[in-house]
Amino acid sequence: MRYAHGLLLPGCPNRDTRFRVVFGEGDVNPKVMLVRQGPGIVEEQTGRPFAGPSGRLLDQALAEVGLEREKLWLTNVIKCRAVKSEKGRVSTVLRRRLSSKPVAPG
User: How far apart are CA 15 and CA 47, in angstroms?
Assistant: First the structure.
């Protein structure tokens, strides 16, 4: 599955305004993983990471070094486009989440 419509994420500030959640795609056991901050407008529309201008640039760079996109894992740190406030700032809840320390698994 590459994306899901209407995925319920309790507490997500983007839950009511996002168009689509963008998950990762590619080889699930890759030697190389590429991660960008969050999806752009094209990524949100298609549900695929690195689908817009950044994807075209990535494809050119991969071709130059002989790597195949399908053999990488491509994803975003943030899975949907950030909600903007009236002043154009990322919401307080999202900013707090991004600035908090990660919790080690298990």
Answer: 15
> Which of 10-14, 42-46, 47-51, 81-85 is predicted least confidently?
81-85
Task: For residue 72, count CB atoms less than 10 angstroms from its CB and return exposed for 0-12, middle for 13-18, buried for 19 or more.
Answer: buried
Q: Which fold has domain 3-98?
A: Uracil-DNA Glycosylase, subunit E (3.40.470)
In 3D space, the residue among 64, 10, 57 whose CA is nearest the CA of residue 36 turns out to be 57
Tokens of 6: 């209407």
Judged by average pLDDT, the poorest of 2-11, 13-22, 73-82 is 2-11
